[in-house]
Amino acid sequence: MNLLIKGGIVVDPVSGTVSEKDILVADGKIAGSGVGLHHPDAQVLDVPGKLVTPGLVDMHVHLREPGLEAKETIYTGTRAAARGGFTAVACMPNTRPVADSAAVIISIVNRAAADGAVRVYPVGAITNGSLGQEMAEMGDMKQSGAVAFSDDGMPVMDSGLMRRSMQYAKMLNAVIISHCEDKKLAGGGLMHEGDVSTMLGLKGIPAAAEEVMVARDILLAEDTGCRLHIAHVSTAGSVRLVREAKSRGVRVTAEAAPHHFTLTDQAVIGYDTSTKVNPPLRTAEDVAEIRRGLADGTIDVIATDHAPHTAEEKDVEYELAPFGMVGLETAVGLVWTELVAAGVLTLAQAIAKMTINPAKILGLPLGSLGAGAAADITIIDPAAAWTVDPAQFASKGRNTPFTGRVLHGLPYATIVSGRLVMREGIVL
Ligand SMILES: NC(=O)N[C@@H](CC(=O)O)C(=O)O
Predict the structure, then answer these.
(1) Residue whose CA lies nearest to ligand 1 atom number 6
(2) Choice from 60, 94, 273 to test ligand 1 binding pocket (greatest atom count within 8 A of CB)
(3) Which residues are recorded as binding Zn(2+) 2 (predicted)?
């Protein structure tokens, strides 16, 4: 099957160029691009005015399968990804059982092959059960398809164990993704520690709970030579630590989630439990520094930390609700509205942080529209204005604080390996 994508504005994050041209897809690969392409028997997709980008890659997603299928499944989570314009997702290991063995990694890979609408790349746990006690079989997991290692949500508090894990990961040329949180400093807090937490009477999580661990892990990455990726950076101090480490040549990269460059702790006023997220929503100064970090390249990646929970779990007092919000189906709208239209990032910069940059960090051959590359393509309507309505989500999770918000920029089509998997919001 051949596909001719005609008249779109092609964004090439590798060269940083944006230009109007056609793209021809044949046998699941990019066959070529240029102006005024023709092909006798290709299906034509006419997309004047729309953005044509490499398939978006979300390197931080919770698909919840195996074991937590009431929240999300690989079937529903990958359909949410397709609706959000993502052609590939990396899924975090905090499932039941935890993805800490080759057996679980293989079961996720197999389930994704059977049920997945988009590509799924499992992240393996650093420690058995993510309990921070002993190192998991990272080598076995890597051979079985794990693309990175993380104890996301359950940070490795034992610095000696983290150092040995980094030494081992370095031997495997694997990246460690660190959820930076000192659990003792976080102290069971529910939201950012500051004026708003004081006013609301909710226990706070200080910025230092994150920054102490960012600093520790940077020092350990420097010590071991391991590649380190800092997940969901939420504070100005973390951005500064990563910036300084990069300037010294430490092999560190970082990501930010849309909610952390969009919302502040003010969103918690009203006690909407969908604003309860880990790390928490911080202050306007933090948001400003994250935007600066995105603009100057300190933050390489935009990733959603899509964390679906059931309505029953979230429909409780703020204190009792689990941390997490969904993100796959609002990410493109938030990036376009808050970063590109707002002039924080150029279009090519924003797309690089959602394509080639995460692909490089995970070592995946994705993120480019070059001839011969897999035809993973995202088409975005930048002119569309739309209102966030969780009832429309393909995700089982409806826990978003963005309900009712008007966004600009809507994924129009998602193409995986040359196959249309989503068009105009409908997963095919
Ligand atoms: N990010 C979140 O708020 N929640 C994550 C776990 C975590 O990282 O704490 C989840 O799995 O629900």
Answers:
(1) 153
(2) 94
(3) 152, 179, 232
Digit-coded pLDDT (tens) for 280-303: 999 999 999 999 999 999 999 999
Radius of gyration of the chain (CA): 20
ipTM of the complex: 0.97
The pLDDT tens digits of the residues spanning 61-120 come to 999 999 999 999 999 999 999 999 999 999 999 999 999 999 999 999 999 999 999 999
Residue carrying structure tokens 């919302």: 263
What pLDDT is stored for residue 1 in this prediction? Answer: 78
Tell me the CA–centroid distance for residue 323 and ligand 1, in Å: 5
Q: Is 182 assigned a ligand-binding role in the annotation?
A: no
Does domain 56-362 match CATH 1.25.40.10? no
- The CATH superfamily assigned to 2-52+373-427 is Urease, subunit C, domain 1 (2.30.40.10)
Residue partners of 265: CB distance under 8 A and separation at least 6: 191, 192, 194, 196, 197, 280, 281, 282, 283
Question: Which ligand 1 atom sits closest to the C-alpha of 62?
Answer: 11
| pTM given for the model | 0.98
In the residue annotation, 389 being an active-site residue is answered as: no
Domains of the chain, by residue range, sit at: 2-52+373-427, 56-362
Mean pLDDT of 9-17: 95
Catalytic-role residue among 100, 305, 376, 381: 305
